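ok new one. same drill as before - structure tokens go in, u give me an amino acid for every spot. 406 of them this time. try not to just spam alanines like last time pls lmao
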């Protein structure tokens, strides 16, 4: 009987046997095979297995408790969800995600393509590198994976089967708590507020009742709007990049939710990159980030409308005016979830290195205030965010307010 027929938490020493058992025909040079745990995320263990013949794969393995906190447990089914959605995303947006070689619902692990020739986008952006193809690549990925899984395009019973298969209650609960509740109430006492901004956060996030009402509406939208099969955690730590290639990975938060959640996450994480570039005086990089924010929104709109015309099958969705109505609601959601991601990464439990590594105290304070002012603008005025330039205007308003508040 295989020692992998019952779940246990694998360590480096187990992984070579695991790969040999699960991928026996890969052409491994057994004598030179070696492995290293290279995981950098909050949840899982990631092993790179290589040999001297140039073979390499990644093994991703779900533990029963999270890396970020041994007190937090989340269903290990997340590994199946991640594997199955990567296979689907590769069908809708070929070449935009790592290939899955196999997945295993016993060990809650999958073996996938090694993308070590790419760099994690968050770290590349913290080195202020520029990627001119990014807006084009990410908007193709989003339109193809999101629109194609909606009721606009997909046969409705097939879509409902996917809703069922990707029901992801425990990972959604993390988002409902960490993104859509705690940044405003700190009800679990887990927020990490930068001490010099304590009073600012108290006033702008914890005491703003009008904001709380809008967040409660967004939380219910997130929980109930089964619009499309989302990646669910589309930040720059879920993207591998190099000059001529963009690969999206880590979709374990996938579920049927509002399209704007994915698009908004991309925009917010570009703003974190801008925060970092701005703190270190990287003008050319910041200009590229701002242009990319504009391009992501405007290219998404353009490609979405074209794909809608080409692929819509639902007869009522083809009625005059529906397409524009549908897109405008996605754009309002995009603004809202740009705002919620900006807030939660600034004060919540899971923060981003783009901001937390800003060494100068005043510059970090400033970056956080820009994020929070911009977030509130995006959330409170979400219906007026209709094009890329609206985000640049909001960022400029936030910069002016942050300067005044210091
Ligand atoms: C407890 S998990 C914290 C965060 O890490 C993931 O990448 C998600 O963004 C989640 O909110
Ligand atoms: Mg992740």
């Amino acid at each position: 009987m295989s020692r992998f027929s019952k779940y246990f938490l694998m360590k480096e020493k187990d992984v070579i046997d695991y790969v040999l058992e699960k991928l026996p025909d890969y052409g491994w040079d057994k004598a030179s095979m070696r492995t290293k745990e290279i995981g950098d995320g909050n949840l899982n263990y990631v092993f790179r297995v290589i040999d001297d013949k140039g073979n390499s794969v990644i093994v991703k393995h779900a533990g029963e408790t999270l890396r970020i906190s041994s007190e937090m447990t989340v269903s290990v089914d997340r590994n199946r969800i991640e594997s199955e959605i990567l296979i689907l995303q590769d069908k809708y947006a070929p070449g935009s995600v790592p290939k899955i070689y196999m997945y295993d619902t016993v060990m809650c692990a999958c073996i996938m393509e090694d993308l070590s020739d790419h760099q994690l986008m968050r770290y590349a952006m913290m080195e202020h590198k520029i990627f001119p193809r990014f807006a084009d690549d990410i908007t193709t990925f989003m339109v193809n994976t999101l629109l194609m899984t909606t009721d606009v395009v997909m046969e409705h019973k097939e879509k409902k089967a996917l809703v069922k298969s990707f029901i992801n209650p425990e990972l959604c609960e993390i988002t409902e708590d960490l993104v859509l509740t705690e940044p405003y109430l700190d009800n679990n006492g887990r927020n990490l507020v930068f001490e010099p901004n304590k009073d600012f956060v108290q006033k702008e996030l914890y005491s703003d009742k009008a904001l709380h009402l809008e967040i409660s509406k967004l939380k219910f939208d997130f929980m109930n709007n089964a619009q499309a099969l989302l990646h669910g955690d589309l930040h720059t730590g879920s993207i591998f990049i190099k000059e001529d290639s963009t690969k999206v990975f880590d979709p374990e938060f996938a579920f049927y939710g509002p399209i704007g959640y994915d698009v908004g996450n991309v925009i917010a994480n570009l703003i974190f990159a801008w925060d970092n570039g701005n703190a270190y005086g990287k003008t050319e990089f910041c200009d590229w980030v701002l242009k990319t924010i504009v391009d992501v929104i405007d290219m998404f709109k353009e490609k979405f409308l074209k794909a809608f015309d080409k692929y819509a099958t639902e007869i009522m969705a083809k009625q005059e005016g529906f397409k524009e109505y549908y897109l405008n609601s996605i754009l309002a959601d995009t603004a809202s979830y740009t705002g919620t991601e900006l807030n939660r990464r600034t004060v919540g439990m899971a923060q981003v290195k783009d901001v937390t590594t800003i060494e100068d105290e005043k510059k970090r304070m400033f970056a956080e205030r820009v994020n929070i002012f911009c977030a509130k603008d995006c959330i409170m005025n979400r219906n007026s965010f209709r094009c890329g330039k609206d985000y640049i205007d909001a960022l400029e308003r936030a910069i002016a307010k942050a300067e005044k508040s210091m």
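The mean pLDDT is 97. and btw The beta strands are 34-37, 45-50, 56-61, 100-104, 109-113, 119-120, 228-230, 239-242, 245-248, 255-257.
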